[in-house]
Design brief:
Blueprint (H helix, E strand, L loop, with lengths): L40 H6 L28 H14 L4 H9 L3 H6 L9 H17 L5 H4 L15 H8 L1 H12 L4 H14 L15 H20 L2 E3 L10 H20 L24 H16 L13 H14 L9 H14 L28 E2 L2 E2 L3 H7 L10 H19 L20 H6 L3 H4 L27 H6 L9 E3 L21 H10 L5 H9 L2 H17 L3 E2 L5 E2 L2 H9 L15 H14 L13 H14 L4 H16 L5 H16 L7 H12 L8 H16 L4 H7 L25 H18 L5 H8 L2 H11 L7 H8 L1 H10 L1 H15 L20 H11 L1 H17 L11 H20 L3 H13 L5 H9 L8 H4 L3 H16 L15 H9 L7 H31 L7 H27 L1 H4 L4 H12 L3 H7 L1
Antiparallel strand pairs: 1-4, 2-3, 5-6
Helix pairs in contact: 3-5, 5-9, 7-10, 8-9, 8-10, 8-11, 9-11, 10-11, 11-13, 12-13, 12-14, 16-22, 21-24, 22-23, 22-24, 23-25, 24-25, 24-26, 25-27, 27-29, 28-29, 30-36, 31-33, 31-35, 32-38, 35-38, 35-39, 36-37, 37-40, 38-39, 39-40, 39-41, 40-43, 41-43, 41-45, 43-46, 45-46, 45-49, 46-48, 46-49
Length: about 1150
């Protein structure tokens, strides 16, 4: 069944995704030479500007550390700040790798030959930890660094995170905070915790009679409190009766929870934390939450996930379930198991996995190709028309061969990949004893090489300690005291709630958490690791890959690739730049890129076997970019701009490898994936590509443009090509990023490229065969006169209203209609809406002139027009968008008067064309469609300008959201707008819906009750639960959802009718993909926006349980149902 998950079903065969083009057997790659050989020299030269400039290395920062600048001369404060910086950067791999280069043979000769073998970079990390532990544990320093609780004059008051931190002291808080926010350094903070614990001076004169022991216990206490808090946020817990106080940074909370559990797993490996208790083998769920071993904690979370699956709010609606809680909790446990294998028994690990398999057996991935609400691949490849160049057909034969394959392309999401990888690791570790991955974060043990005092004392009996119970296989420096336990108590509300132990005096509301920003679609851009059959096929076909890609494909297994991409995602989340409450920016894209590249030090380097890791980094980031959601209301997912900036900075940090891998990745996406990409994913890729080029001085090889040109130049004559539309959209987006598109022609594209003509496309002819009708000639004269009145004479709006609806103008135009000999559907519209057309075209004159000027400037590069002057053909200070919007606002009444007059005249003469009489509301919708069609025709060269015009027209109520949908999808007896459908219709529909929703629920307006009654079910359900359906907050929610629901139903019904006409059981048309995927986007974004607006509404916020009520209300409205009937 599509979308269902079972770990046993995720074999490596799922990665052999059949792409649109063959590997080395079709198509041309300008940098592969013969086959997939050496890179092109142009590529190396073009990317030299990527080289880094100037500034030194930025040290990692800690999100929980207060960086507020204060002026002080206190030496202790300065030392404390320096210590905080040292702790945060103790295992900065980029710096440690450089330091390791100086640790040559002399250092190795001085080392004890019996010490465990360590990688050079880890030796440098261990040296940093040794130095820091020795400094902290000097008797004269312990009072300054290790003070806690009563030793600071502070006493804990409850179980809150703040009190736990104050009780534990600043250093314990700092270490646990770093462990929870720096994903690549967890083993180092475990070693630091162990080193400090074992080297704390005994209570005596130098410690001033204070006992500073128990440092590890304090770290565990802080980490436990932080885990409890983050689990609540991750699972959507809202505390208190008001239900408005809970923060929403669930992505950060999930990541911190994952890293804290990793910290606990590694603490158990060094013997600090009890790994398994006696009852853990039986998976006993009646656990004491004040004394949990690692195994007990994992059991507790898995059982909570099982109970969350059946958690409901009393409604029978499918969307009201809390299944995402079970998915998120299962993901946390699965992410912890790889770091715990050394301390968990095989039976216990298998029981955990089997329990999780049962929990997620009905899981349907939101990224299932064609079916998932967030899918990045369509169910089957779209129809690609044959593209001809100079009479020769471009070879697309392999696409036709792939269409015969009955297997649906598989693109598992990261959660499904996690299940598969963990199962592989567990089977290999316990059954075969094999090493499943080169990822060293699972096995790095910096504590093994510690040389501080505590380590020296343990050196004599290290062999005895290595044979300890609980399968602890770590050797070297180990914890020497009684093992510790985790205490959650009442601090984790979600676990208590799911285990039916919640306190009646502490009411909570559980929202439906989102997985967006946590679970991502998985896109394998480069070939999967070869098996024996693949290698034989490659030998038979004499296939030659680029050496970098070949290294990545051969040396990185599926498990390696998972940990590589997972670590990159963690770095992007944890090192994302934020702005503090004081306005100070913390972090940057440059810093995130540097930390991201540190992942390269987490894989075993054996000769040249690890070359190609840059391909994995590029693959991970590009896969995130194509599924970014620029229209989402979520503030916590990684944004398009952030990812694009990080990729640019990464190319600057590593100019010798990243740019070339990026070019290869884009080439593979273009050749192999575009026909199977959803339209949204394709648009995201083109938008990123345009952004990347304009921010890197168009550093892209011309050979690629020459190869891509035929897809747009020869594929635009009533044909659609996903590759051609990618190139077309890229050029369009680049125009919106630059002041003068002439630079695109001169600096980006090859000389005399045919693509230059498509930077600013030519306008279509106004009439068939360029014939000029009598009506159009008369209207042009009227339009010229009106433009002069608006833009030259600056007439008042009231005077123009009298002019456009006056008898003199009306009689002049009416007399021309009977004389018109040119018949076309366009002229029929002009004769009906001629006043409206004259006004809207006159108001948009700057946009039309801008288009003409830009096209002339671009065509100068092709020498297609004479160049009479070198000066620009327009005022450089002119702001077309501002001028146009101001003009539309000033003369809005003129446009409305023209629309009203055209509707009146048509309504008075219904039989003039043999048409049936339409209602006024129907005519108003037709008027909306006509106005939007005129704007589209004039501003189609720039989606930015058109979107600004659309925003004004909807906000000022010139057109309605229903009118926008009808303009796009048509109505009964009307065809859908093919041009708009093919150019991101979902963006325009979503914009119109959002603007209307914002206006409808404006808190300054009186509440108007809707009479549609389309969601009476939700009212009845709320009343049965004790809610008051007549309360102002409930009525406001009803007003909004009663407005949104019919619009989404209209869009769904229209798309359903259109799809019935387009349906092809063998191939997927581009329009079918546009309509299906666009509806998913529309419903998803509108649902999120409705929820956000309701939560922020002043009247609704004043009601008790506001967030819970909104969450339940929106879920019960089941807007997703409008998508299910289309995609199933």
């Amino acid at each position: 069944m599509d979308g269902q998950l079972s770990s046993s079903r995720y074999s490596s065969s799922g990665d052999n995704y059949r792409r649109g083009r063959g590997r080395g057997r079709g198509g041309y790659n300008p940098f592969r030479g013969r086959g997939r050989g050496q890179g092109h020299h142009r590529h190396d030269n073009r990317y030299r500007p990527y080289r880094r400039e100037g500034a030194g290395r930025r040290q990692p920062t800690n999100r929980f550390e207060s960086n507020e600048s204060t002026k002080t001369d206190n030496s202790d404060s300065i030392v404390s700040k320096q210590l905080a910086a040292m702790v945060a950067s103790i295992s900065d791999f980029n710096a440690c790798a450089k330091a390791a280069q100086g640790m040559g043979s002399d250092d190795m000769a001085n080392d004890d030959s019996t010490a465990p073998k360590m990688r050079e970079v880890m030796r440098a990390v261990t040296q940093n930890i040794d130095d820091l532990v020795s400094f902290i544990c000097i008797p004269d320093n312990v009072s300054m660094f290790l003070g806690y609780g009563s030793t600071q004059g502070q006493h804990g008051q409850g179980e809150s995170l703040l009190n736990a931190e104050s009780e534990a002291g600043p250093l314990a808080t700092l270490i646990t905070s770093c462990a929870a926010t720096l994903p690549l350094q967890t083993p180092s903070y475990v070693a630091l915790t162990l080193g400090i614990e074992e080297n704390i001076p005994e209570m005596g004169e130098k410690s001033k009679g204070v006992d500073y022991s128990g440092f590890a216990k304090r770290c565990i206490a802080v980490a436990s409190s932080r885990l409890a808090c983050d689990l609540d946020i991750t699972c959507g817990v809202v505390c208190g009766a008001d239900s408005t106080e809970a923060p929403n940074d669930y992505v950060q909370s999930f990541t911190r929870s994952k890293l804290i559990l990793r910290y606990f797993a590694l603490l158990s490996r060094v013997g600090i934390l009890e790994s398994m208790s006696i009852d853990d083998e039986d998976m006993d769920t009646s656990l004491d939450m004040t004394s949990l071993s690692l195994g007990s904690l994992l059991t507790l979370i898995v059982e909570a996930a099982s109970r969350a699956k059946s958690l409901d709010d009393g409604s029978k609606v499918e969307n009201s379930s809390f299944v995402n809680i079970s998915i998120l909790l299962s993901a946390l446990v699965l992410s912890t198991i790889p770091y715990s294998l050394q301390v968990l028994t095989k039976d216990f690990a298998m029981k955990l996995l089997n329990k999780i398999d049962t929990i997620i057996e009905d899981y349907k991935s939101p990224f299932t190709p064609g079916y998932g609400i967030m899918s990045i691949l369509v169910k089957k490849a779209q129809i690609e028309e044959s593209i001809h160049e100079n009479g020769l057909e471009v070879d697309d034969d392999e696409e036709e061969e792939d269409d015969d394959d009955e297997n649906t392309p598989v693109c598992a999401d990261t959660f499904q990949d996690l299940v598969r990888v963990v199962r592989t690791l567990v089977d290999n570790y316990y059954d075969e004893g094999q090493k499943s991955t080169k990822f060293t974060l699972l096995t790095d043990c910096p504590w093994q090489g510690l040389n501080c005092v505590g380590a020296e004392e343990q050196q004599m009996d290290s062999e005895v300690n290595s044979e300890n119970t609980n399968n602890v296989t770590s050797t070297g420096f180990m914890y020497s005291r009684e093992k510790l336990y985790i205490s959650i108590r009442n601090s984790c509300r979600i676990l208590h709630h799911l285990h039916s132990n919640s306190d009646e005096n502490l009411p909570i509301t559980v929202l439906r958490p989102s997985t967006e920003g946590i679970i991502f679609g998985r896109l394998s851009i480069f070939d999967p690791p070869p098996d024996d059959d693949d290698e034989d096929d490659a030998d038979d076909n004499n296939e030659v890959r680029n050496p970098i890609v070949d290294s990545y494909v051969k040396n990185f297994s599926l498990v390696d690739r998972f940990f590589l991409s997972d670590s990159i995602r963690d770095c992007l989340i944890c090192h994302k730049a934020i702005v503090s409450s004081t306005g100070v920016e913390k972090g940057s894209a440059r810093h995130a890129a540097e930390q991201l590249w540190s992942v390269s030090h987490l894989f075993v380097h054996e000769s040249d076997s690890m070359k190609g890791i840059e391909c994995g980094a590029v693959e991970a980031i590009l896969s995130l970019i194509v599924q970014s959601n620029p229209g989402s209301d979520s503030e916590f997912s990684m944004g398009f701009i952030y990812l694009s900036r990080v990729l640019i900075e990464l190319a600057k940090c590593q100019p010798s490898c990243i740019p070339q891998s990026l070019a290869l990745g884009v080439s593979d996406l273009f050749n192999d994936f575009l026909p199977s990409f959803s339209p949204l994913a394709r648009d995201n890729l083109s938008h990123w590509f345009a952004f990347h080029l304009t921010n890197t001085d168009y550093q892209w090889p011309h050979a690629y443009w020459n190869v891509w040109a035929p897809y747009i130049v020869n594929g635009t004559n009533n044909q659609r090509s996903s590759r051609g539309e990618f190139v077309k959209k890229t050029l369009e987006d680049m125009v919106s990023f630059v002041a003068n598109p002439k630079t695109i022609a001169s600096d980006c594209l090859p000389v005399q490229s045919k693509l230059i003509e498509h930077i600013i496309p030519a306008k279509e002819s106004q009439t068939p065969d360029n014939k000029v009708s009598v009506l159009s000639s008369t209207i042009e004269g009227l339009e010229s006169d009106l433009q002069d009145r608006i833009w030259q004479k600056n007439d008042e709006a009231s005077d123009l209203v009298d002019y456009i609806v006056g008898d003199e103008v009306s009689e002049a135009v009416s007399g021309c209609m009977s004389e018109d000999s040119v018949v076309s559907s366009k002229n029929d519209l002009e004769s009906m809406w001629w006043r409206t057309g004259v006004v809207i075209r006159s108001l948009l004159r700057p946009v039309s002139e801008k288009r003409n000027n830009l096209r002339q400037q671009v065509l100068q590069s092709l020498q297609m027009i004479s160049m009479d002057t070198d000066e620009d053909m327009e005022d450089p200070k002119a702001d077309v968008v501002t001028d146009t919007i101001e003009c539309l606002a000033r003369y809005r009444s003129v446009l409305l008067a023209a629309l009203a007059k055209d509707i009146q005249v048509h309504d008075e003469n219904p039989d003039r064309r043999g048409e049936s009489k339409k209602t006024e509301s129907e005519l108003m919708l037709f008027g909306d469609s006509y106005v939007l069609g005129q704007c589209q025709e004039i501003a189609s060269y720039s989606s930015t300008i058109f979107s600004m015009c659309l925003e004004f027209l909807v906000s000022s109520k010139v057109v309605t959201a229903k009118g926008v949908l009808q303009w796009i999808l048509g109505s009964d007896g009307e065809k859908f707008n093919r041009e708009v459908i093919a150019n991101g219709w979902w963006n325009f529909a979503t914009l119109a819906m959002r603007l209307t929703v914002d206006d409808l629920l404006d808190s300054k307006k009186l509440l108007v009750e809707s009479d549609t009654g389309t969601i009476s079910m939700a009212i009845d359900a709320l009343e049965n639960e004790g809610g008051n359906p007549s309360s102002p907050s409930v009525m406001r929610m009803k007003t909004l959802t009663d407005f949104v629901s019919p619009l989404l139903k209209f869009a769904s019904d229209r798309i359903d009718l259109i799809l019935n006409d387009l349906k092809d059981n063998t191939k997927l048309s581009h329009y079918e993909a546009d309509l299906k995927e666009g509806l998913k986007f529309l419903v998803r974004c509108v649902t999120a926006h409705v929820k956000k607006v309701l939560e922020n509404d002043e009247m609704i916020k004043g009601a008790n349980g506001a967030r819970g009520n909104v969450d339940s209300w929106v879920a019960k409205c089941a807007f997703d149902d409008y998508v299910r009937k289309i995609i199933n």
